[in-house]
Amino acid sequence: MAAMEASSSSVTKSDCINPLDFSTASNKIVFSSSAVDFLFLCHRLRAARAEQVGKSYAQAGELEKQLNEETQRQQKLSDAKLKAKVEVSQRNQRHYMGEELDSLNLKELQSLEQQQLDSALKHIRTRKNQLMFESISNLKKKVRLNSVNLI
């Protein structure tokens, strides 16, 4: 054992290492001259390390508590934002369906009407394009069939 030292049965100040220096904090065993008594790190070192570990655990607990509180606060804020978005979407849907229009002023009614007209026009144009492409596709098939029949 490389960490063993032969000395007298009493622990001197040099046997107690700095509790904040973890590089030398191995289990230092001190043997008496008769090799019977085993002494580990001095009591003061153990007490200092225990106090340091206790402080570290307390700090970690406090940080975890703060993190949990911040997470809960962010979650509540996110929930509130989502609820507001849902309420706005539901209100807009009711307006599009023609319900609860009495609470809107003239400008809002005109805007709603314009949005509905734009939406309907977009739907009509999409359907018209779809029908035109289908018609073009059918005409191309007929042209191919006629060209095959002519040969």
Automatic annotation (TrEMBL):
InterPro entries: TF_Kbox (IPR002487). Residues 72-151 form the K-box domain. One of its GO terms (molecular function) is DNA-binding transcription factor activity. It holds the Pfam family K-box. One of its GO terms (cellular component) is nucleus. This is K-box domain-containing protein. It comes from Acer saccharum.
